[in-house]
């Protein structure tokens, strides 16, 4: 018996929760989806691939949907059967305000951060938080670019 594995391009199969399916389908129709793939044991820049397969059924037992990304692999950095970290990028927020994920605090009125004013005093500001990006989080409302938190 012989199994042929293609190395370049290589495929990365992964799953998403059925709760994310609508967003993925919308972005797939718009043609804006990309997959960032990296090895878990390295800090190297991710390799950008394209989503090339979306299963037509939700798995009953897990509530997940299978996907496949096709990734260029001319350097043979990725190997069949090896685990990778995949981030499916649904959208990009231009000029987003990012703060360390540890900066926002919670109160009875919601999330807030402290902002350093021109006179070097701190002011508490209510904020609306968006998606997390590694150790940073997007501030959708409440802080402008250039403020110090």
Question: Any chance you could write out the topology, listing elements then pairs?
Answer:
Layout (H helix, E strand, L loop, with lengths): L9 E8 L3 H10 L3 E5 L8 E8 L9 E8 L13 E5 L7 E4 L4 E3 L2 E7 L5 E5 L1 E6 L2 E6 L8
Antiparallel strand pairs: 1-4, 2-3, 2-5, 3-4, 6-11, 7-8, 8-9, 10-11
Order of helices and strands: EHEEEEEEEEEE
Secondary-structure-based class equals: mainly beta
Specify the biggest β-sheet: 5 strands, antiparallel
* Spans of at least 5 consecutive residues with low confidence: none
Q: What is the distance, rounded to the nearest whole angstrom, between the alpha carbons of the first and last residues?
A: 61 Å
Q: Rg from C-alpha positions?
A: 20 Å
> Which geometry do the CA atoms define?
elongated
Instruction: Give the CATH level 1 class of the largest domain.
Output: Mainly Beta
Amount of helix: under 10%
CATH architecture verdict of the largest domain: Beta Barrel
Hey, roughly how much beta strand do the residues contain?
A: 35-45%
**What is the count of distinct domains?**
2
What do we call the CATH topology of the largest domain? Answer: Elongation Factor Tu (Ef-tu), domain 3
The average pLDDT score comes to: 88
Strand order of the main beta sheet, please? 1-4-3-2-5
């Amino acid at each position: 018996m012989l199994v042929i594995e293609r190395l370049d391009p290589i495929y990365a199969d992964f799953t998403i929760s059925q709760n994310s399916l609508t967003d993925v389908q919308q972005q797939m129709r718009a043609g804006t989806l990309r997959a960032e793939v990296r090895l878990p044991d390295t800090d190297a820049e991710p390799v950008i691939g394209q989503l090339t397969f979306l299963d037509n059924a939700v798995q009953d037992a897990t509530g997940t949907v299978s996907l496949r990304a096709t990734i260029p692999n001319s350097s043979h950095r990725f190997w069949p059967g090896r685990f990778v970290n995949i981030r499916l990028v649904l959208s990009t927020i231009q000029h987003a305000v990012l703060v360390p994920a540890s900066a926002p605090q919670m109160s009875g009125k919601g999330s807030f951060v402290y902002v350093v004013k021109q006179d070097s005093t701190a002011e508490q500001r209510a904020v609306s938080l968006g998606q997390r990006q590694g150790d940073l989080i997007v501030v959708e409302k409440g802080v402008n670019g250039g403020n110090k938190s």
